[in-house]
Design a protein that fits this description.
The chain is an alpha+beta fold. It contains 5 helices and 6 strands, in the order E-H-H-H-E-H-H-E-E-E-E.
C-alpha cells in the first residue's frame, strides 16, 4: 500500500501538488507565523536528512516529457516519515489550504523506488480527479 498527501485541486501547471510543495508555497509567500516557519524549516531539514530526493538519484524522474505528472508516494511501511506529516497538515489547515490523503496499492507506473517511497506516473485518469484505483481517505487530514 502507498500513501500520498496532495491538493484536491490541480495547480495552474496541471498537476496535484503534494503536501511538501503546498507547505513550501506557503513559506515562499511568507504566510506562516514565526513559530510555523520554524516548524516548517525544521521539518524540511529533517525530511531532507531522513530520505532520498529521487531527483538526486535520477535527474529525469520528474521530467515532464519523460515522466509526465510524476509524483512521489510514501510506502505505508515508512511510518517514521508518515508520523511527521500531521504537523504539515496542521500548518496547511491553519492557512485554509486543502490537502487530502490518497491510498493505493497501484498508483501508477513506477519510475523510481527506494525503501521509503515510489515515484509514479499516474495511469490515465480524468482531468478532474484521481484514478478509480486510488482511494481517498480523510484519515489524518
Amino acid at each position: 500500500m502507498y500513501v500520498r498527501f496532495q491538493s484536491p485541486e490541480r495547480s495552474p501547471r496541471g498537476h496535484f501538488p503534494g503536501v511538501f510543495a503546498l507547505a513550501n508555497g506557503l513559506a515562499r509567500e511568507g504566510r506562516p507565523t514565526e513559530e510555523q516557519h520554524r516548524f516548517w524549516r525544521a521539518g524540511n531539514d529533517w525530511y531532507d536528512a531522513a530520505y532520498t530526493d529521487p531527483s538526486r538519484v535520477d535527474p529525469a524522474v520528474y521530467d515532464p516529457e519523460d515522466n509526465p505528472e510524476a509524483v512521489a508516494w510514501f510506502k505505508a511501511s515508512a511510518t517514521h516519515l508518515l508520523d511527521r506529516v500531521p504537523g504539515y497538515l496542521a500548518l496547511l489547515a491553519a492557512h485554509g489550504v486543502a490537502c487530502v490523503r490518497l491510498e493505493s496499492a497501484d498508483p501508477g507506473r513506477v519510475v523510481y523506488e527506494d525503501e521509503h517511497q515510489i515515484v509514479v506516473v499516474p495511469r490515465d485518469r480524468p482531468r478532474s480527479g484521481p484514478a478509480p484505483a486510488i482511494r481517498l481517505s480523510r484519515r489524518n487530514v
